[in-house]
Amino acid sequence: MNKIKILVTGGTGYIGSHTVVELQNKGFDVVIVDNLSNSNIEVLEGITKITGVRPAFEQFNLCDTEKTKNFFKKHDNIVAIIHFAAFKAVGESVEKPLIYYRNNLDSLITILENIQSNSIKGLVFSSSCAVYGQPDELPVTENAPLKKAFSPYGNTKQIAEEIIADFISVNAGSRAIALRYFNPIGAHNSAFIGELPLGVPSNLVPFINQTAIGIREQLSIFGNDYNTPDGTCIRDYINVVDLAKAHVIAVERIIENKNKSNFEIFNLGTGNGASVFEIINSFEKVTGQKLNYKVVERRAGDIEKVFADTKLANDELGWKSEISLDETLLSAWNWEKFLRFKI
Ligand code: WQD
Prior knowledge:
The chain has eleven helices and 13 strands. It has a seven-stranded parallel β-sheet with strand order 3-2-1-4-5-6-11, with helices on both faces. It has a two-stranded parallel ribbon with strand order 7-10. A two-stranded parallel sheet has the order 8-13. Strand 2 (29-33), helix 2 (43-51) and strand 3 form a beta-alpha-beta unit. The chain has helices at 14-25, 43-51, 65-74, 90-95, 97-117, 152-169, 204-212, 240-255, 276-287, 311-317, 325-341, and strands at 5-9, 29-33, 56-58, 78-83, 122-128, 175-181, 183-185, 219-222, 234-235, 237-239, 263-268, 274-275, 293-296. The termini are far apart. It is α/β, with parallel strands linked by helices. Bound molecules: UDP-4-deoxy-4-formamido-beta-L-arabinopyranose (WQD). Residues 88, 90, 128, 130, 181, 183, 202-204, 207, 219-222, 233, 235, 276, 299, 302 line the site of UDP-4-deoxy-4-formamido-beta-L-arabinopyranose (WQD).
């Protein structure tokens, strides 16, 4: 029987590569498009080692309308698309807003144009809890009012959701699901793929790993004077494999026409918050590594506390996070050791 073909844009990236693994494990035929601006082609080897299948791969920029159009002519049997490709560094987006708006929104619009002209069933879109800003109520539900985004990055996610909603409203034949991730962390338990931040990591867990393995001298904790139990910010850290599995469920929902509406939005988190110190303590416990850190001033743009209400994804997608924080941090550490020492 012919396999169902899925396009994964940004599929050599962190969440994209883990999603390709889960798609191939479920028997889907995957083609990846990535411009390798923030990922490494070696990731294809890791995916192949884990699944035994090397995904088709094409390298080009999805803002290039001609190349994208030709791609869809060649791959004329794509049933659905999971769209990860975007720039995602919060701090960089503040320094280079136009690059973020151009890249993140042009690529989405090009994808939507090709969904329309190739009668593709639909799109799963990589969104983010960044769209909520600092919620008034916690846990935050999908109906929470979206506040002004704290960064151009977060704003591109808010605008992207609006573009998709407007597109779907006049293209009833297509359907879309936006997945709002909280804080993705960890790695596949094979340690063959994981998070590959280029340069100095801005995110907490990769910085912790690089400090523990000796690449970074010391972890800076950005403030311990917040209104939280231990003074550090609270986030909802979600295992990347659990996150990847939710994408497979979402794309199957679109293919099998199970959507309750043509554009659905789901939070993907654990429903629990963890502080920076709790992450550090858990990391030290499961790895036996003593972390060198110091408390410094707050980082501009950080919100104090956010974690997900996961009821909608639990009820509608039949999905919930399953891998514990301890296991997740250990998987991140095992990946870091494989990355640096191939052990
Ligand atoms: C987590 C906590 C920091 C680094 C962002 C985006 C979000 C998603 C994930 C893309 C905060 C603290 C961090 C460090 C620290 N990105 N921290 N020292 O900012 O919650 O979320 O990345 O999808 O959309 O907004 O993640 O890991 O940067 O920070 O103390 O060296 O760790 O202050 O409290 P963030 P983060």
